[in-house]
Amino acid sequence: MVDHKDTMRQDDDREIQDKVVQFLIERCKLHKLSKDDILRALGILKSNGANVAGYRARGIFPTMSFANHSCCCNARHMVSSEEGIIQVVAQKVIKKGEEITLRYTSDVLQAVGERRKQILEQWHFPCSCPRCSDPTELGTYVSALQCDECEEGFVLPKNSLDSESLWVCGGCDNAYTAEKAMDIVEGLEREYGEVDLEATEDVEEFLTRGETLVHPDHCLLLTAKMLLFSLYGSVTGFLAPALSMELVARKLELGEDLLQIVGRLDPGRTQWRGELLCELGRPVLVTMLEKLELKEMEQGEFKKQLGLCVGKLEEAVSCLEGEPYVAYEGLKDRVKELAKTNLLGKGYNAVFNKIQKLTFI
Predict the structure, then answer these.
(1) Within a 10 A sphere around the Cβ of 20, how many other Cβ atoms?
(2) Distance between first and last Cα of the chain
(3) How far apart are CA 266 and CA 253, in angstroms?
(4) What are phi and psi of 291, to 5 degrees?
(5) pTM above the 0.85 mark?
(6) Burial of 270 by CB count in 10 Å (0-12 exposed, 13-18 middle, 19+ buried)?
(7) Do residues 160 and 133 touch, judged by C-beta distance below 8 A?
């Protein structure tokens, strides 16, 4: 396995590396190990290790480490800490002869400069995957800036693989230096750091302000939308929502927006998609039950919408398990099976129990 130990010695954490060497040799009395042995082990762990869920630890899984990185990968890894194993599962169809790739970074919502810098510092290679090579990042514009000249076009790097590349507006050819582009994003990041992240009004104001500086789907704004989606919670019971219908609608709008944009960057059977679909289903089902009880929705329409919602929840389970979901044929049987699924959480129990009592399902 590669260790990059010579390059690693140029990192800012060189002092920590030396303390590890000193601790193992002097305190742990591992005199058979040389400084070079330990630095090589540290390098292997840094370059090839995977975080072990539930522990402050990284583990080496030799076969998995063969897989190369892509910011738009076709597979993901799932660690079982109790069993001490790791699974690599396809998150979309992989054709015969196609390379299996993983995303080494944990956060899909990183702008191109920040993402490529992390990959270079952590794994010591310049990423040139399809996402990094495309200034629009697969048509999502998640790193694009708002032009300060025409205020209509969006500013993108001419060459996204060059950290010093000029950034040019697609509407008026206004050009930014790479330094100016970075300053805008870093300034917005500082603003976000000062926002009360538990106050929905403050986060909404940040989104409004941010859209004057960057593309509406910029990574930082998508991160804020993810937070808002979570903050808006979900309904607590029938005819007694914790949120107004207006805020429930806002939550659903945020969720659909995230599914569409982030889904282009990280498509397929992903963990984040499963969690998002799971959280979206609850307010949808409770709102439907409320409308049915108030006679604002016909039984036929309810059954139709229920089928769509159940399909999305089955997809959520598939994403969370990392495996295809085999569904029953009848709608009522499908609901009954989902009711047994612990992955969806306790919040669904009362909803599914009420739905199963409906005679027309």
Answers:
(1) 14
(2) 57
(3) 20
(4) -65, -35
(5) yes
(6) buried
(7) yes
Q: Hey, where are the domains in the chain?
A: 5-102, 106-222, 232-361
Give the CA count within 13 Å in the CB-facing half-sphere of 210.
29
Which whole-number Å values give the CA distances from 53 to 59, 85, 270, 317, in the listed order?
10, 11, 17, 19
Q: Which run of H or of E encompasses 77?
A: strand 75-80
User: Rounded to whole angstroms, what are the CA distances from 234 to 213, 214, 230, 300, 342?
Assistant: 31, 30, 9, 25, 18
Contact residues for 174 (Cβ-Cβ < 8 A; gap 6+): 147, 148, 149, 150, 153, 155, 168
Q: Would the CA dihedral through 211, 216, 219, 222 be positive or negative?
A: positive
Q: Does residue 163 carry a pLDDT above 80?
A: yes
What gap in Å lies between CA 274 and CA 318, rounded to an integer?
7
Neighbours of 117 (CB within 10 A): 15
Q: What sign results for the dihedral spanned by CA atoms 50, 52, 57, 62? A: negative
| Dihedral pair phi/psi, residue 58, rounded to 5° | -125, 145
What is the per-residue pLDDT across 204-236, written as a single tens digit (0 to 9) for each?
Answer: 999 999 999 999 999 999 999 999 999 987 544
Asked whether the beta carbons of 54 and 79 are under 8 A apart, the reply is no
